Amino acid sequence: MRLSGAPMESGDTYQRQVLSIFSIASGICLLGVACMALYRRNKRHREKLQAHFSESRSLRDCSVNASGLMSKSTPRLQYSLQLQKLSFPV
């Protein structure tokens, strides 16, 4: 039988406070672990997407450059020939 204001009551209060602080700290740690796991998963996914994007971009650039060189070489040659004719009249 406990009397109000007895030392046992303060011990119970202390245990409850420790338990609540421990629970809050555990929750924060679990939340941190979950956030870190999500960050790493998203980072790996982002790296895969960037690698795929850069690969597709380089393939696209190569095909555009190859087709562009063939289509642009003729007008450039004609333009340079016209400049030569204007610069050095025959």
From TrEMBL:
GO terms for cellular component: extracellular space; plasma membrane. Keywords: Cell membrane, Disulfide bond, EGF-like domain, Growth factor, Membrane, Secreted, Transmembrane, Transmembrane helix. It is a single-pass type I membrane protein. One of its GO terms (molecular function) is growth factor activity. The keyword Membrane applies. Its main location: membrane. InterPro entries: Neuregulin (IPR040180). GO terms for biological process: animal organ development; intracellular signal transduction; nervous system development. It is found in: Cell membrane; Secreted. The chain crosses the membrane at residues 20-39. It comes from the Eukaryota. This is Pro-neuregulin-3, membrane-bound isoform. It comes from Liparis tanakae. The lineage of its organism: Eukaryota, Metazoa, Chordata, Craniata, Vertebrata.
